[in-house]
Amino acid sequence: MPDLFDVYELGRFYDEMFAGTGQPRPHYQRLFDRFARLDGMSSLLERQRTATQTFINRGVTFTVYSNTEGTEKIFPFDLIPRIVPAHEWATLEAGLTQRMQALNLFLADIYGAQRILREGVIPSEMVESSKHFRREMVGLPLPRGLHVHINGTDLIRDENGAYRVLEDNLRTPSGVSYVLENRQVMKRVFPNLIRDYRVRPVETYTSDLLALLMRLAPEHVPEPTVVLLTPGVFNSAYFEHAFLARQMGIEIVEGSDLVVENDRVYMRRSDGLAPVHVIYRRLDDDFLDPTVFRKDSLLGVPGLVNAHRKGNVALCNPIGTGVADDKAMYHYVPRMIKFYLGQEPILHNVETYLSSDRKDLTYILENLPKLVVKSVNEAGGYGMLVGPHSNQAQIEEFREKILANPRNFIAQPTIGLSRCPSVCESTIEGRHIDLRPYILNGESIKIMPGGLTRVALRKGSLVVNSSQGGGSKDTWVLAADDQASAPIPRLPEKLIV
Amino acid sequence: MLSRVANLIYWMARQLERAENTARIVDVNSQLVLDLQSRQAADDPKSWEPLVYVSGGEETFFELYGKKATERSVVEFMLFDRRNPSSIISCVSQARENARCVRDLLAAEVWETLNTFYLKLKDDDFARYAQLGSAEYLNRVKARIHLFNGVADSMLPRGSAWWFFQLGRHLERADNTSRILDVKYFMLLPETSPVGTALDMVQWASVLRSCSAFEAFRRSRRGQLSLERVVDYLLRDDQFPRSILYSAKSAAHALAQIVEGAAHLANNRASTLTEALIRDLEKTNTEQTIADGLHEFLDTIQLRLNEVHTAVQQTFIDYPTNQARIVA
Fold it and tell me: Does residue A13 fall inside a structural domain?
């Protein structure tokens, strides 16, 4: 019987599983050996079908915006896990912790004394021109001195296998529900493999998040009420909102459920108004409060910002964190790390050109076909140009956009993201992946081991977003490296993998 | 529970109950028409038009279908037309949307039962109705709703969600039974068949059957079918679950459960109005009511039920927040 990986092509990218043709990396050896005992591709496809059906039955779905019927789709799932050895994770954890510390200090500074601007480390206009900078929040003390609570940092690996930070998501990062659901499914499909690998569990995430949220409540409240604020059932991430609320045992509310009276927030219950102390909001700043931000927002709560200013209600994430995940501000994060912590960054950024910088702009315009251009405020893979995959007309369109509004764009070299073997119809092929770990900044900084590995399932595609044909994989962070390559005990031929 | 969620559940129950009773109303009319002796009368537009009035949708109907009410146009309007907010398809579709929003509160089976029902119903049309025959088709619709109610009954915890479900269901049922009674009023009898004739009896039997009340009536009130006896049974029987009095009492019970433990809601307007309606129904002399005009009496009941509905909204859902009670 041909081996599952016999025809696997390595390509010119960093491959997560193979160091060379037919040579799995040490931490993939065990999986390689176990897969060899499967009944070939048909057995793998059978498991893939089981996994997909499980997602459908559990209702793990998202809604696509562009689809007028609002059809629910499942987020495609790939069976072959991304495995992260313990020593690699230790470095990532240290790097992400450092980054979170710096970002928190930066936000505290920007909405406080603005030392980093006064000392000229970051140009003031970068902050003032940022769409997500909220002047209204300057000088407002926040509970426990925490200026950002949750970050979903997107990491990629370049052609040499080096991890790099692609962007931070400091507003309302999504996807964590898929991490938890993916693991549930993998435990059914590969129970023994997970156990033998000693994969670190992810299941404590929701209790950690709840503890973090409870701690933000005003200090005089003995039993605070936490709610999750959703834009509503038609939001693409509604499944995740309902999932997290259910897991934490908190109420999921819409803007119309909340009212503000005397600068206090209440939820409108059938028996009266119940006080709310902490809001885990999955709604952007713009929509939170029509009396302060967008006047036309029907999703928010009039008076909420004032209640927050009075210290009667905490918001997670706080208002205005977006100033630090702006794709142009990203460029300055390594300088923040040096400035606030006096340390060298452990994790490096991707080289970034700012079109607001005259010199960079010239370079960008001359090299558009080689670069990836991103709009600084967009997310979800929208509003970007992948130079090498674009035609002349698309490139010219971006050239004009950039010239019209240089502050709105950045450019990066096209990075060949690492690839991981993935089940593609009837073969296993390499597909590009990234990784979004979730960093919680509470009593201490806690990072769920792993995170969401997104995979660009379209052949050759570098865009991993779910809205652009992306799927996900389970991410296995190993408790210890020796487990992965330890000799395998002799087992019967036909083994449950 | 959240007012919005309570309201979604309350309306989900109302809409499903309305769908069921619309099936019953169309059913009783089909039977009444069959009972008419002359074919001519059966084809008479006047045989179907009353339904449009009874359901309160006459304006929409005449706007959409013009002046002529035929069996086909009325059945399409009441069963399949999404432009009619009270048609069966509109009610079931809206109930499903509500259920989708509160899916986390419902057992998976409850949602699935409703979802499957909707998916089965959504492509039906008059041709399908005609092919199966009115009785068979409407029976299937009713059976689907009974299945849903049965699943809900055996799965839902008896918390606020359940009692808002019950409240919506019984308020709607009280209203709808009054409308079923009214069909007979609107039905023009042939000149030769005045009240009290054999045909009249046959028609009252149809009204009872449409409420699944025929056998129950025969057991509890032995003797002849007569106008007074049938009206009295559907109006104020103490034990029959679709009578207006029984439905009002069930609504009052649901209200009492909803406000249990909340002292500040003990004397809420919705409960007060419902209790008053119950008292008046208990005192009603049916014979006198018929003499004074049954249609007008039923109209008043519908208005009073609507006042209860408004009070429910103002007490639990849309209350002004600046003077609302703060609860822990």
Answer: no
